[in-house]
């Protein structure tokens, strides 16, 4: 437009005079529009900047970064659309509001304006009175949007710094949306911010995964907020991170959880710091053992647990005899060295196979032993051992014995051989006290008694417990020796067939030929053997010896007799009874059907399915099975048809009184009838007199044994009996 | 019949800010100064069949004419803009035939009004 446009540019506002006010860049090739809009905009408090074509607009924008742009659409040189496009492509022009001026009803331009990034539009002819209001409104929206963006950016930053991520779990679809920080913590692809709950839970370390799964499921089910801490397994830097997950439910009008909203935070550092603080407070610096504070906590826990579970536990109080001399002669460093070595030995005594792994986060490396036990150093040369779960006081005696032996082995301290011993006092919950102070005091008192009785030993607080423990402990040792050194032997009680009167088998009964006390009855040692597990080697011995004997009798031509042996449930639950039987059969070479395993009903009481499975595996070996003491169990009848048994042995108590008590006689009669209907043989034991025998004969009991025929006999006596016995009882009467 | 709508001029006067140069005077001056050249460009562009140029300049004059109340003239330019946009050269030729005279009568009337006010 030549010279005239030159004249007119003087009227345009090409510079920003004040930045105190929001700057509006007005772009129009029609100078009149620029002039007419100027006053209303300035009155409304804006600083106005002009441009008369699109290209100039881009230049002005780059130079002055206005807060808002009013842009005419149709202009020479560069139109408004192209101008917007260029402004939007620069980083500072991304969010600047742009008001586009278009022709009235020019839908094409309006659409294009939005496509290029215009914020709003206004049609020509422009109402210049209204224009400032429109501009103000747009700026307000822009400021709100800026604040929102800034706030979002601050939040993102804060979350990044706090290593805090957030997530939303939609229950119906199982979709979880998570933030970048969650992806970063769990080691997910940063571009994938959606998945399902399983993706998150799969990253929980295996030890706690099912627990985390259970707790989240439970929280959803009950629509409750929850908080969990767990360790993440993953690749490289994510592996081993401790995270805390917090969640709150959103519920529908029926109170059902429809969404869980939560956060995940990396708490590795605070977890490590906490652990370090805990270790400093609860562990002894010299030995790495728990200190008095930790012991006190463990003791409180043991008291709670034992009360709830009705368990016993023991407190062993010990100090080192002559420790002071070591300290005085070799110095404190040597003393510390000795304490460390003693600690290792104590832990060694208590350590069991399941040692818990624990990362050494601090300078102190806690000494690890079984979870329910504690070894603590409570000061100087004083140690306390807490045995969290003992079955009998002897268990504590056994540990004390091992500790005393272990401690008293020589130490090498600064190339000097040092020997110290320990004296141990033991208190037992609940007998010696029901609270921590009493138990500690009594263990301490017991230790001083032990010292009076000579050092390097142990002493229970209670004399009664001490004697009982000592005697049982002694007996346990003796029984072990007895099994190893063949002090056991078998007696055989003949079992006779009711119809023929012939000896068909024997029941093997174990006896202990004690070197000092002579023959000891099983009543006096079987329960001990069961408690200590010695029943297993004992049972193995009985199996081997009895089957060997049966084969010997066959070889001698004495006859073919079956042998019945009694088995304890402990042999099945703690040992491998089936394998033991198989071994005995193989060693002896007898026909399996000659071996009769007697079991009591209580083996099946707790778990009938396991019982049936066990009996089936015994039957596969070909052995006979008898239910011993039948009639005294509580659930005798219903389970019987499921069990692959061959014989029922009527409990002696019924046989004993059946000739005087019609009730007992009725029971015996019923058992015989029941057994026969189930295809089982019935054995009566404890038959002592003729009347009992006669009744059993009338009831058609199949087999009998008892004093009426023979006492249990030694092997030699039995062989003699077989030769001499002519079955007089069976010839009398009918 | 007057080419100028007084009401439009009143609207411009209402935008006048105290202590600033006479707005209506400047608008009229601009129109008087720019329009003949713009009209000449439009006519040349019709001759050279540059319809894009026709459209842009017609659009421009259309707006400024409307602001000074020359509604009839503005409508004519709107029609030219529309025809140019639609590629209708024949219609453009018809519409620009005596446009110089039309522009001149608008300018004359505006200048007369200016003189009267002054």
Which characteristics define this entry?
heterodimer; A: 734 residues; alpha/beta; Rossmann fold; Beta-Lactamase; Alpha-Beta Plaits; 4 domains; 8-stranded mixed barrel; 6-stranded antiparallel sheet; 27 helices; disordered N terminus; B: 118 residues; mainly alpha; Four Helix Bundle (Hemerythrin (Met), subunit A); 6 helices; elongated
User: What's the CATH topology name of chain B?
Assistant: Four Helix Bundle (Hemerythrin (Met), subunit A)
Average pLDDT taken over every residue of chain B: 88
Instruction: Identify low-pLDDT runs of chain B.
Output: none
* Number of separate structural domains of chain B: 1
Most extensive interface: pair and counts?
A-B, 26 and 26 residues
Query: Strands of the largest sheet of chain A, in order across it?
Result: 19-20-22-23-24-25-26-27
Number of strands of chain B: 0
Helix proportion range of chain A? 40-55%
How big is the Rg of chain A?
Answer: 46 Å
Biggest sheet statistics of chain B: none
Q: Which class best fits the helix and strand makeup of chain B?
A: mainly alpha
Tally of DSSP helical segments of chain B: 6
CATH topology of the largest domain in chain A: TIM Barrel
The oligomeric status of these chains comes to heterodimer
**Morphology call of chain B:** elongated
Write the layout of secondary structure elements.
The complex is a heterodimer of chains A (734) and B (118).
Chain A lengths: L1 H8 L13 E5 L3 H13 L3 E5 L2 H11 L3 E5 L7 H10 L8 E5 L4 H10 L3 E4 L7 H31 L2 E7 L4 E4 L1 H7 L7 E3 H5 L4 H17 L3 E6 L10 E10 L5 E10 L1 H15 L9 H18 L2 E10 L1 H8 L1 H19 L23 E6 L2 E9 L2 H16 L2 E3 L2 E3 L2 E9 L6 H17 L5 E3 L2 H22 L3 E10 L5 E12 L3 E3 L5 H7 L2 H22 L5 E5 L2 H5 L3 H12 L6 E6 L1 H4 L2 H14 L2 E7 L16 E4 L1 H6 L4 H16 L3 E4 L5 H9 L4 E2 L10 H10 L3 H4 L3
Parallel strand pairs in A: 1-2, 1-3, 3-4, 4-5, 17-18, 20-22, 22-23, 23-24, 24-25, 25-26, 26-27
Antiparallel strand pairs in A: 6-7, 6-11, 7-8, 9-10, 10-11, 12-14, 12-17, 13-14, 15-16, 19-20, 19-27, 20-21
Helix pairs in contact in A: 3-4, 12-13, 13-14, 14-16, 18-20
Chain B lengths: L5 H9 L8 H25 L3 H17 L3 H15 L3 H8 L2 H19 L1
Helix pairs in contact in B: 2-3, 2-5, 2-6, 3-4, 4-5
């Amino acid at each position: 437009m030549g010279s005239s446009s030159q004249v007119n540019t003087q009227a345009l506002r090409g510079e920003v005079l004040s930045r105190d006010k929001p700057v509006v860049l007005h772009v129009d090739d029609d100078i009149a529009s620029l002039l007419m809009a100027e006053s209303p905009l300035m009155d409304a408090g804006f600083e106005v900047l002009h441009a008369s074509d699109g290209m100039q607009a881009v230049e002005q924008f780059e130079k002055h970064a206005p807060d808002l742009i009013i842009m005419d659409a149709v202009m020479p040189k560069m139109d408004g659309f192209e101008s917007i496009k260029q402004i939007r492509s620069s980083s500072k022009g991304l969010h600047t509001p742009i008001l586009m001026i278009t022709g009235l009803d020019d839908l094409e331009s309006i659409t294009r304006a939005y496509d290029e990034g215009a914020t709003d539009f206004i049609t020509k002819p422009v109402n210049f009175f209204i224009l400032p209001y429109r501009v103000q409104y747009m700026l307000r929206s822009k400021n709100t949007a800026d604040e929102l963006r800034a706030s979002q950016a601050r939040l993102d930053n804060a979350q990044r710094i706090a290593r805090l991520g957030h997530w939303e779990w939609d229950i119906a679809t199982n979709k979880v949306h998570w933030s970048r920080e969650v992806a970063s913590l769990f080691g997910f692809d940063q571009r994938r911010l959606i998945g399902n709950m399983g993706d998150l839970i799969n990253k929980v370390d295996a030890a706690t995964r099912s627990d985390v799964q259970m707790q989240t499921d439970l929280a959803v089910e009950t629509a409750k907020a929850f908080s969990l801490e767990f360790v993440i397994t993953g690749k490289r830097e994510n592996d081993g991170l401790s995270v805390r997950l917090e969640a709150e439910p959103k519920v529908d009008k029926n109170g059902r959880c429809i969404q869980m909203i939560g956060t995940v935070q990396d708490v590795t550092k605070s977890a490590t710091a906490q652990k370090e603080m805990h270790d400093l407070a609860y562990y002894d610096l010299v030995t790495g053992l728990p200190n008095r504070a930790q012991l006190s906590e463990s003791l409180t826990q043991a008291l709670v647990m034992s009360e709830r579970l009705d368990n016993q536990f023991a407190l062993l109080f010990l100090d080192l005899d002559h420790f002071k001399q070591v300290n005085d002669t070799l110095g404190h460093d040597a003393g510390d060295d000795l304490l460390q070595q003693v600690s290792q030995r104590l832990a060694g005594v208590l350590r069991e196979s399941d040692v818990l792994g624990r990362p050494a986060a601090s300078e102190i490396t806690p000494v690890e032993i079984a979870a329910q036990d504690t070894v603590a150093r409570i000061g100087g040369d004083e140690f306390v051992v807490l045995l969290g779960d003992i079955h009998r006081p002897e268990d504590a005696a056994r540990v004390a014995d091992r500790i005393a032996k272990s401690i008293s082995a020589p130490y090498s301290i600064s190339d000097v051989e040092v020997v110290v011993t320990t004296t141990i006092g033991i208190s037992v919950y609940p007998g010696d006290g029901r609270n921590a102070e009493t138990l500690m005091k009594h263990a301490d008192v017991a230790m001083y008694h032990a010292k009076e009785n000579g050092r390097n030993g142990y002493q229970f607080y209670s004399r009664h417990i001490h004697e009982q423990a000592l005697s049982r402990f002694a007996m346990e040792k003796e029984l072990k020796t007895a099994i190893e050194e063949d002090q056991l032997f078998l007696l055989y009680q003949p079992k006779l067939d009711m119809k023929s009167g012939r000896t068909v088998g024997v029941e093997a009964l174990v006896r202990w030929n004690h070197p000092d006390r002579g023959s000891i009855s099983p009543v006096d040692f079987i329960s001990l053997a069961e408690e200590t597990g010695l029943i297993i080697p004992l049972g193995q011995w009985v199996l081997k010896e009895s089957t060997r004997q049966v084969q010997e009798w066959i070889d001698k031509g004495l006859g073919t007799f079956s042998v019945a042996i009694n088995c304890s449930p402990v042999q099945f639950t703690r040992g491998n009874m089936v394998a033991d039987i198989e071994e005995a059969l193989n060693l002896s070479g007898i026909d399996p059907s000659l071996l009769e395993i007697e079991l009591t009903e209580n083996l099946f009481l707790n778990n009938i399915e396991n019982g049936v499975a066990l009996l089936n595996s015994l039957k596969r070996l070909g052995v006979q099975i008898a239910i011993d003491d039948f009639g005294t169990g509580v659930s005798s009848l219903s389970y019987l048809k499921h069990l692959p048994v061959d014989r029922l042995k009527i409990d002696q108590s019924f046989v004993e009184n059946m000739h005087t008590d019609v009730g007992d006689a009725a029971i015996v009669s019923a058992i015989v009838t029941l057994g026969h209907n189930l295809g089982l043989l019935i054995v009566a034991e404890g038959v002592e007199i003729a009347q009992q025998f006669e009744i059993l004969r009338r009831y058609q009991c199949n087999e009998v044994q008892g004093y009426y025929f023979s006492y249990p006999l030694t092997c030699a006596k039995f062989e003699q009996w077989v030769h001499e016995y002519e079955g007089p009882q069976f010839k009398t009467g009918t | 019949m007057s080419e100028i709508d007084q009401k439009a001029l009143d609207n411009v006067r209402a935008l006048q800010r105290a202590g600033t140069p006479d707005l209506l005077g400047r608008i009229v001056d601009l129109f008087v100064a720019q329009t003949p050249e713009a009209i000449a460009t439009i006519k040349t562009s019709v001759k050279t069949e540059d319809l894009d140029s026709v459209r842009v300049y017609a659009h421009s004059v259309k707006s400024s004419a409307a602001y000074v109340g020359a509604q009839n003239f503005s409508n004519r330019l709107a029609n030219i803009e529309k025809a140019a946009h639609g590629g209708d050269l024949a219609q453009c030729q018809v519409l620009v035939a005596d446009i110089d005279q039309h522009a001149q009568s608008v300018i004359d009337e505006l200048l007369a009004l200016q003189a009267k006010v002054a």
